Amino acid sequence: MGPQIACDVVPAFQTSPGMRDILPPDSARWRRFVDVFAGIVGPAGYGLVIPPLLEDAGVFQRVGEATEVVTKQMYRFTDLGGRDVALRPELTASICRAFAEHRPAVPWKVWCAGPQFRYEKPQRGRLRQFEQVDVEVLGVDDPHVDVEVIALGWRFFQALGLRRVELALNTLGQPDDRRRYVEALRDHFEAHLDALTEEGRQTLTRNPLRVLDSKRSGDADVIAAAPAMTDHLSDAAADHFATVRAGVDALGIPYRIEPRLVRGLDYYLRTTFEYLGGTLDSAQNALGGGGRYDGLVEALGGPATPGVGFAVGVDRTLIACDDEGVFSTPAVGVDVFVVDTTGGAEALVITEELRQAGRSADRAFDGRSMKSQMKAADRSGADVAVIIGPDELAAETAVVRPLRVHGDGTPDQAVVPRAKLVHHLIQHHSLRSPAPLASEDE
Ligand code: HAM
Asked: Are residues 140 and 274 in the same domain?
């Protein structure tokens, strides 16, 4: 720990429930998470899209009137111009709105990263502001695109180093199949109303499909006896799903068919899938999920356009990484720390020269003692300290002192002419080059 500002005053404000600050060094891990995702989806032809956090609330209402995310959990308010707006609870509706608005050429393959807002009961892995990374493909009906997105998610979890992730796969059929299935489910549950919990009965009045999603043990028996979607599939939907399965098999990705997988949002048709974390509680074990939402662009006033995609929750996936001991917080540090006991003006110029040369450099402020500056140099993670005292200033030199022992024959302390300092550091010390934009797996 470095020196801290002395303060025994209780802060006037703290983050709201379900919100949190992500501070260094954890924030470096977050950034890297998104970089790894970009490194997987970018080379597959996906371009970054950055929609606004705030949309007309109607955009999300199209997600489905029976979706709790929309009806109960939305941060919705009237803005100063009298508009009915909402902080986005998810990305798919925003991306479909953007598609309907800008009409880009199809296939439109995009990815996105950023915060979502849902007024949920905060608990481990469930927040009110949480981060997602997401991909969407608009304008392609081919089942192989379902396979492509499923595989991208799978490869991403592999790149993080996660081994205990399971892929669950299902189909909700074509709109007519889904309608028939919902009726069959309603008949089944209405015939067994007594066997449902009160919450289960309430869900039934809104959407029989969502009863399947119940995690309550009181609903388990009647759910287990419910009809299966596979018995209500049209030939076209069954063919689509068979091709998806064959494709996932061909890529060697393990999965299980999960006939009760309905997902929490109402726009899904045909393929649905979820990536489940093996270390998490079953109420919060979905690390990510997605599927097809062929009617959504049309519902938002655009042309009839098929769509498929998924989102991964960053917060939850990092908990899974902690549980599995993978994808640790990257070591942060600068290349060079400049220790200047002559007032700090030399440190100002040397750090600037190094940064201009593309190297990272830091220094201490407030005229601290040599001992305190050397401690700060050590904490900074720098490989090398450059030391300027009165003697060096007078002789126009600098002392270069390695701070870490490397097995590669790191040179000993040296006195270097000031004019050649940056050149010397680059020549004789294996300074890290500027961080790459997309990092590889460890
Ligand atoms: P979702 O299943 O609602 O899907 O969210 C995707 C992931 O976001 C979840 O699996 C979970 O990891 C994370 N997540 C959701 N809610 C929370 C929360 N309150 N706190 C922390 N993490 C959370 C969607 O959002 C769809 N838009 C996915 C999609 C894209 N479907 C098609 N394309």
From this structure: yes
* Ligand 1 pocket mutation pick from 41, 124, 262, 265 by most atoms within 8 angstroms of CB: 265
What is the CA(95)–ligand 1 centre distance, in A? Answer: 15
Ligand 1 atom with the smallest distance to the CA of 69 is 3
Is residue 251 located within the same domain as residue 368? no
Asked if residue 148 and residue 58 are part of one domain, the reply reads yes
d(CA 160, CA 105): 32
At 179, give phi and psi (nearest 5°): -60, -45
From the list 114, 52, 111, 115, the residue with the least C-alpha distance to 85 is: 52
Question: What is the 74 CA–ligand 1 centroid distance (Å)?
Answer: 14
Hunting for tokens 């499909």 — which residue is that?
A: 209
Strands 165-171 and 256-257: parallel
Domain count, the chain: 2
Distance in angstroms (rounded) separating the CA atoms of residues 212 and 69: 17
25: preceding bond cis by omega (within 30 degrees): yes
Q: Which of 324, 350, 381 is the last residue of a domain?
A: 324
Last residue within a domain, chosen from 265, 299, 324: 324
> Does one domain contain both 317 and 343?
no
- Closest Cα to atom 3, ligand 1: which residue? 264
Q: Is residue 440 a part of any domain in this protein? A: no
| Residue 187, in any domain of the structure | no
Ranges under pLDDT 70 in the chain = 1-7, 406-411, 432-442
Contact 442, 327 (CB under 8 A): yes
pLDDT at 440: 40
pLDDT in tens, 55-79: 999 999 988 777 889 989 999 999 9
In a domain, 229, yes or no: no
In a domain, 179, yes or no: no
Q: Are residues 271 and 160 in the same domain?
A: yes
Task: For residue 259, give both structure tokens.
Answer: 């006939």
Looking from the CA of residue 134, the nearest atom of ligand 1 is: 30
- pLDDT of res. 442: 36
**pLDDT (tens digit per residue) in 18-31:** 999 999 999 999 99
> 307 alpha carbon to ligand 1 midpoint, in Å?
17
147: Cβ below 6 Å to ligand 1?
no
Burial 118-140 (b: 16+ CB within 10 A, else e): bbbeeeebbbbbbbbbbbbbbbb
Report CA(313)–ligand 1 centroid distance (Å). Answer: 6
Identify the domain containing residue 371 by its residue range. Answer: 336-428
* Shared-domain flag, residues 256 and 403: no
